[in-house]
Amino acid sequence: MKIGILGAGSMGSGIAQVASQSGHEVVLFDTNAEQLDKAKGKLAKIMARLVEKGRVTSEDAEAIQGRISYITSMSDFAGSGLIIEAIIENLDIKKKVFAELEGIVGADCILASNTSSLSIASIAAACKKSERVIGIHFFNPAPLMPLVEIIPAVQTADNVTTTARNLVDSWKKVTVLAKDTPGFIVNRVARPFYGEALKIYEEGVADFATIDWAMTELGGFRMGPFTLMDYIGNDINYTVTETVFKAFYYDPRYRPSFTQKRHSEAGWYGRKSGRGYYDYAEEATKAAPNTDTVVGNQILNRILVLLINEAVDAVFLNIASAKDVDLAMTKGVNYPKGLLQWGNEIGLDNVLSQLDALYAEYGDDKYRASVLLRRMVNNGETFEF
Ligand SMILES: NC(=O)c1ccc[n+]([C@@H]2O[C@H](COP(=O)([O-])OP(=O)(O)OC[C@H]3O[C@@H](n4cnc5c(N)ncnc54)[C@H](O)[C@@H]3O)[C@@H](O)[C@H]2O)c1
User: Fold this and answer.
1) pTM (two decimals)
2) Fewer Cβ within 10 Å of end Cβ, the chain: N or C?
3) Nearest protein Cα to ligand 1, atom 29
């Protein structure tokens, strides 16, 4: 099947590589010819490195590069079985592009968006055959991150969902099915990892280095929240948080933080600007954490119970199955353990009592426990996968 990719930025170029590695003929389009050159150069470098490491043969590397055509006219999308759009995150532009695509491709071509925050229903509404539109959400970098969220809109036909999921499964990705709601699974369930860490800092409980130490050393997370936010970029992470907050009708659970807003306003984006929560200048001294395990465990538990609560609530609201929620967090953001499994292990009753204590102390809806969590504790149930 010929696969069309729209947008040759970080995501589009990575998705093109994934599809080509699986043997597809790929056409990659961008309005900016420079981006196409950059994508081609980047892939050549990646392939050279993989050959050097002995991970692919030089013949395969050549074939993978040879299967991708870099196009400057959308008319070359004709004959594709699937188009994945990965252009700028702007609804009006995406809608325009989807309407245009319909005039080029055949009636059976599936049209997918890699959007992180827009509703698939709103993009699908731009098409005459809206039942062919679906969300196929990769994680960055697409060739390395195994998770792909498959998001049918209310309009999407069942056979489109099945075909899209089977196809991406055949690309050796781990697919999960998510409801078309803000943040889908990962970007919804992960919010407390950032939000609660920022709140703990704002309350003066601990500094950035100590919170990061607690989450990595005591919690087993690969990166602490502040290191991760500096890596993602505070501008991007703040915008995602604000978008999710608004999209959830200002639910306090997703409230953004002034600390992050000010860091972003100051231009302290993180690694890319040389300074974020940490200073990345060569001569800078690394901040040392306070390694008191009592404080560390308090920090870890407070963030962890909120994460587990989000994961439970996602199951309660049928955003995804329990199995898919746990897969999403381990395969999309490298959590050391699925959150529901983690809840089972530390005891759902323990999670509930910690949440209820926070709720009683703060009087803030941010800490309200999911109805499903309370029901399961009352019935003595645990999650089964
Ligand atoms: N970066 C991430 O971590 C990430 C992860 C998952 C999903 N996404 C989503 O993927 C999409 C792309 O993100 P990105 O980070 O690759 O962006 P990017 O800025 O790296 O690339 C976007 C590309 O789209 C091109 N473009 C813009 N308008 C276009 C048009 N009308 N037609 C064709 N090409 C056009 C730009 O020239 C650019 O090359 C967004 O919807 C984003 O929300 C991003």
Assistant:
1) 0.95
2) C
3) 87
